[in-house]
Write a structure and sequence with these properties.
With 445 residues, the protein is α/β, with parallel strands linked by helices. Helix content is 36%, strand content 16%. A hairpin with a 4-residue loop joins strand 4 (105-108) and strand 5 (113-116).
């Protein structure tokens, strides 16, 4: 095989493309040699919808309707806590509005931060464990499976929940803000995640941790790495595996803000959840990034205007969400425009070849109607230019190890379930645990 010439980043990216022809390389070698691996502890950080969220109502809560007050939720525990996300009642039109009202965040101009609706307390459950990441709703395991296939695959190679395998759920409505701006919920999650990583390492004899994220979780992990000193990263982080990370945002997010997004659920009217989705701090974080979506690229087209990634503020105003302009310009833009390389080994595993919204066309009926969509390459949710943003962003970073693995036909959520992608993820972890470089394996083929 000819030697590949170029930067360390480019060498690794080329060899992983070749490795697609030789699946399960590390596992095959280890099985043949009967080698017993040391397991670096793994921490899973889910994507937005993969977190279970609970809520309870306080005396300050004022219901928007008698129906919501008397009949929703149907089930509460002794402390008054009930499942807010995911809960099957959201699929029923009378309760969709109840759900949306309780999920809505409010931007407080005086605090310059986001908070829950008055009278709503929220929490995530079982932080540190993978149990709340297995299903969106444990009572509907078959149809709401989330990280269960990945967790099972990790357990098959020896990982155990709470010993070598950990989960880091979070309130996915909240995001982070640029330096100098408060973001209480998001930064508290980063502090908890940091402590979980340190505890996982200390429990496992000081071994550094493998971080595995899905979707939005990758943005949180990158921020965690870059907000801590190199000495901390070197001590506690062995490797970062990002699955389907939207580094450069998504065009799909523009549809969510403009028309609401039922996320493929046929019973849900997207207009009923639109205001709630607009209120989400993390959704603003996922707006298309300028470097990946240049000014000449139209993302939204209407009879009277065209919007690119440079026109997000005008877009927010014209869809009737002008209150989102200030936090977007002050808190979000400076945050997303900085994708600093953290200097820890990173593997991005992404799907491609799945139709993904690229340009939205709205007619005379305006934004209350779903648009016609021009599709391009991606994983069905995240555009390819966003999934591959780190390749271009860090091309000249000499000290950043970056590997990109593309899986044809694998969607944004199927990356956690498809046998091909699970095999790729497990093989990557097996290589890390064994100290075997997949690129060195290729050189010996």
């Amino acid at each position: 095989m000819d030697k590949v010439v170029g930067s360390p980043i480019m060498f690794i990216m080329v060899t992983t493309t070749i490795l697609a022809y030789y699946p399960s390389t590390c596992r095959a070698i280890i099985c043949n040699s009967n080698q017993q691996d040391h397991l670096y502890p793994v921490v899973l950080v889910p994507g937005a919808g993969g977190n279970q969220l609970e809520a309870r109502l306080t005396a300050e809560y004022k219901s928007t309707s008698l129906l919501c007050n008397k009949f929703y939720p149907i089930k509460k525990d002794k402390g008054g806590w009930f499942r807010l996300w995911f809960e099957v009642g959201v699929l029923l039109a009378p309760f969709t509005q109840c759900f949306a009202d309780r999920m809505t965040l409010y931007y407080d101009k005086d605090l310059d931060d986001y908070k829950n609706a008055p009278g709503i307390e929220t929490r995530v459950s079982q932080f540190g464990s993978t149990q709340s990441l297995l299903y969106l709703d444990p009572s509907l395991k078959y149809i709401t499976s989330y990280m269960e296939p990945l967790v099972e695959s990790l357990q098959n190679i020896g990982y155990k929940d709470g010993q070598t395998l950990y989960g880091a759920p979070y309130d996915f409505r909240y995001g982070l803000a640029s330096e100098g701006y408060p973001s209480y919920v998001g930064t508290t999650f980063l502090e908890n995640l940091k402590q979980l990583i340190e505890n996982a390492s200390n429990t496992n004899g000081g071994s550094p941790v493998i971080l595995i994220s899905h979707s939005l979780g990758g943005l949180f992990v990158l921020q965690l790495l870059n907000r801590n000193p190199p000495s901390w990263r070197q001590k506690y982080i062995k490797h970062f595996i990002a699955l389907s990370a939207p580094w450069g945002g998504t065009v799909d997010e523009l549809l969510t803000f403009a028309s609401g997004n039922a996320l493929g659920v046929p019973l849900v009217n997207p207009l009923l959840v639109r205001n709630e989705q607009r209120s989400s701090e993390s959704n603003l974080w996922l707006m298309p990034r300028r470097k990946q979506f240049p000014k000449a690229k139209p993302l939204v087209v209407t009879p009277n205007s065209t919007y690119s990634s440079f026109d997000i503020s005008r877009f927010l105003e014209n869809i009737g969400f002008k209150e989102g302009v200030h936090p977007y310009e002050t808190r979000i833009l400076p945050l997303v425009e900085n994708l600093a390389a953290p200097g820890v080994p990173i593997t991005c595993i992404v799907g491609n070849g799945v139709d993904t919204p690229e340009t939205l066309y709205y007619g005379e009926d305006g934004f209350d109607k779903q648009p016609k969509i021009l599709y391009g390459d991606g994983d069905g949710t995240v555009n390819m230019v966003s999934l591959l943003a780190l390749e271009d962003e860090w091309r000249d970073e000499k000290d950043q190890e970056l590997k990109v693995i593309k899986l044809a036909g694998i969607s944004h959520t199927d990356i956690l379930k498809d046998n091909k992608s699970l095999a790729e993820i497990i093989d990557e972890i097996t290589c890390i645990n064994s100290g075997i470089s997949r690129s060195s394996l290729v050189s010996n083929l």
